[in-house]
Prior knowledge:
Strand order of the largest sheet: 1-4-7-10-13-16
Distance between the termini: 46 Å
Number of helices: 0
Order of helices and strands: EEEEEEEEEEEEEEEEE
Amino acid sequence: SVGSSRQMNxxxxxxxxxxxxxxxxxxxxxxxxxxxxxxxxxxxxGNTINNETLPPTTGTSYLIYxxxxxxxxxDRNIIVDNNTLTNLVKxxxxxxxxxYLLTTDTVKAxxxxxxxxxxxxxxxxxxxxxxxxxxxxxxxGAIITGNTIENLTVGGTSTSTSSTIRGIFAxxxxxxxxxxxxxxxxxxxxxx
Length: 192
């Protein structure tokens, strides 16, 4: 409803069988809001995706996608805290975002664990991209702290030289916006 906070907390996600999916976009926990002028929050915390093989789509896969738009003058917050995304495999080209944040409001991504995620791309010369936490927008501000991002790999037989691996990507385009990142651990990002 317009003007009230939203929560997607303490969920455990398991993928089913995807025998013939080779294209399309995958969303696991997708939250968004718009409208109204209330100072509301969109919260996605305490969720777990562990020991899973993602559908083999060449499209983009979002494990946690949180977005929203400012309406009026009140600040709103997107809060993504204490999520665990571990031991995951994507056996196809395309882009994988464990946490994707898109908003013109304030973003808080704190104390998340993103580890042991492998993209295995055997799709000719197609590229793959793996981004631990990806935040881009005209956000009023971003606080990205205390996250652990480790053991992310992109491999396979693809001949692409354009694949990317990022621990944290944050882009602010708002005049007067602020970004703070601290206390994050990022290690062992590899092409294999």
